[in-house]
Write a structure and sequence with these properties.
CATH architecture: 4-Layer Sandwich
CATH superfamily: Metallo-dependent phosphatases
Strand content: 15-25%
Radius of gyration: 18 Å
CATH topology: Purple Acid Phosphatase, chain A, domain 2
Structural class: alpha/beta
Shape: globular
Number of helices: 7
Largest sheet: 7 strands, mixed
Number of domains: 1
């Protein structure tokens, strides 16, 4: 599920390439009551009413593996789209938020990072779900190990059209203007934008939509050579780099297709996991 891709590069220092998101540090030693249990990482579920199998997989994940974890990190695109926190009370969103809240109440800390599809999820979502919102990127320190967490879209710098959209979508003034519109209009717009996005992807070369090597290198260098964990590209793999003499790893999380798939970290090793036997 996470094929190894060796990218051993003696990277030279550069200052003219994009470095991706700046990071904030997160220490989770006091954030969970289960210090002996693993950390789980998921991304790109794209939950929607039209995909009941994926929704069922997520609910099963929350009631099963997540309850046996110390913390769960959702690294963006949990939802196919999130029209605003005032939609948290819809029957569909309420079901999902309540399930997350029940898992938090059972003792598992859940951290949430917005992606490009659910960039409008904010404090209202956090209150409804009990999840703790974290920045993109966040440097997670576990003992002597440093993990850098990101949704991953900021690293796809070759796709200039998408990066222009990303800046606009994350602009607070633009968000406020959008959220001032009626909920029904917002939902209609997001549905149309989603369809347009899927059409645009078919006309782009796959490598343009993947992460830029210089952006990854600069981000790892700027954060003292951690292990990078991200989603967004839907290309699960383990990449290895040699940067300034430091060996670094990059784990790309898979998207969900009617099954639960996650990356588990026990403080020493990463393990790819699924609710399907044989994976």
């Amino acid at each position: 599920m996470f094929p190894t891709k060796m990218s051993l590069l003696n990277a030279q220092k550069s200052s003219d390439s994009p470095s991706g998101p700046s990071s904030v540090s997160l220490q989770v030693s006091d954030a969970s009551v289960k210090p002996e249990l693993p950390f789980l990482f998921i991304a790109d579920l794209h939950l929607a009413e039209k995909c009941p199998e994926t929704v069922a997989s997520f609910l099963g994940f929350l009631s099963g593996p997540a309850r046996q974890a110390r913390s769960v990190f959702i690294l963006g695109d949990l939802f196919e789209y999130w029209a605003g926190d005032d939609d948290a009370g819809s029957a569909f969103n309420q079901t999902l938020c309540s399930a997350i809240q029940e898992t938090v109440a059972a003792g598992t800390a859940i951290f949430f990072m917005v992606g490009n599809r659910d960039v409008l999820a904010g404090e209202g979502f956090a209150r409804a779900s009990g999840a703790q919102i974290i920045n993109d990127a966040t440097l997670l320190r576990i003992g002597e190990r440093a993990l850098l967490l990101s949704h991953g879209d900021a690293l796809c710098t070759d796709d200039r059209e998408y990066q222009a959209f990303r800046l606009q979508a994350r602009d607070k003034k633009q968000q406020a203007m959008f959220l001032a519109q009626p909920l029904a209009i917002r939902k209609a717009f997001l549905n149309k934008a989603r369809d347009q996005s899927e059409t645009a992807k078919r006309d782009k070369r796959m490598e343009i939509m993947d992460v830029n090597a210089d952006a990854v290198t600069n981000l790892l260098r700027a954060n003292n050579y951690p292990t990078l964990v991200h989603g967004h590209t839907h290309r699960p793999a383990r990449h290895t780099y040699l940067i300034d003499g430091h060996r670094c790893e990059r784990y790309v999380l898979p998207d969900w297709h009617d099954r639960a798939v996650w990356l588990s970290f026990d403080g020493v090793e990463f393990t790819a996991c699924s609710d399907c036997e044989g994976l």
